[in-house]
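As the next step, I wrote out a protein sequence along with its fold in C-alpha cell form, included below for the reader:
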Amino acid sequence: MNHLIRKIWDVPEHEHTPYEVFQNRKAHRREFLKLMGYGLGIAGFADLLSGCEQATQEEIEKAGAVAPLPEALQGVYPAPHNDAFKYGRPETVEKEAVEFTNFYEFTGPTSKEAWKYVSKFETTPWSVTIEGECAKPRTFDMDDLYKEMKFEERAYRHRCVETWAMCVPWTGFPLASLLKLVEPKATAKFVAFETFDKPKEAPYMESSGSGTWPWPYTEALSIEEAMNDLAFIATGLYGKPLLKQNGAPIRLVVPWKYGFKSGKSIVKIKLTSEQPATFWNTVNPNEYGFVANVNPEVSHPRWSQRTEWMLGTEKRYDTKIYNGYGEYVAGLYNS
C-alpha cells in the first residue's frame, strides 16, 4: 500500500501557490507567505513574516560570511576578469543576488531567504573528494584548490526553472581543469556532484528527516558537458568569497541549464559509467528533467518558459535557447 502514502513533495494541485503570486515577489510577498503558511507552525510562520522587513546588505553578508582566507591566499579576490563572457543586460545588484536564493537544506519550499538560516553552517575546514572512473582519485581541501587552480572572474547569466534570472560575476575556474587533474578514464560517461550532509547545521534538512527528501542533494552532467569550457566551479561572487547562502565554499555553475543543476556546497564529485540519480529528477521527474537545458519551447508543466524576469528590476526578457550560450554548447546536443 506504499503507493497510497503521499510524500511531502506530492502537493495536490489545489494547494499549489498560484504562480502569478510567486512571480511578483515584491508586490505579493505578504500574500505569498499567507498562502504558504498553512503548513507551518506559528513560530516558523512568524519567522517567515519577519522577512517582510528589509535587511541591509551588511546584515545579509554578516549572516552568510565564511571564515577569512589565510593571508597567503587573500590575493585571489578579485580575480582577473575574463572579457570573453558578457551579460548582454545590466548586472544584478549584489544585495538582490545574495538575499534571494533557493537552498532547500536551510529553508525547504517556504522561503527564498536562506541567509537567515545559515549561521550554524560550518564551511571550514572543507574538502572535495573526486573518485570513481578516474586514474588519480584525490581529495582536495580548499587550500589545495586556491594554490593549484588558476582563478578568474566570469560574467554569467543565471536562469532558474521558476523563471527568475540574474546576471552575476562568479570567481572560480573551469570544471574541466579540475577534472583533468584526476585523469578521467574512457569509461567515465557522467560526472555526479554531491553536497554536504549536515542536518544539525541545516534547519530544513534536519526537520524534514531522512524519509521525505533524498538528502544529500545530488546533481550530474554528462562527461561532455562537464568538460565544456562554460562549466565552472565557483568559490566567489562579486569579487569576494561565496556567502553561505550562495553555496560556500564551492559550487557548480552551468549557465546554459536551469539553476537547480548547479549544486551548492559540494563535497564529492564522482565519475561514473552509468547515469546517476539526481535530487530533483528523483523527486519529480515530470517537472525536473535530467538534462534541463534552458529552452523557451519546452514549458514547465505549470508555467511557460518563454520569458524570464530579473531580480531587483523585475524587467522581463524573452528566454533564449541554452540561456543564450548556444555558441558554446549547442554542439553537445546536435548529434
In short: The first helix runs from residue 19 to 23.
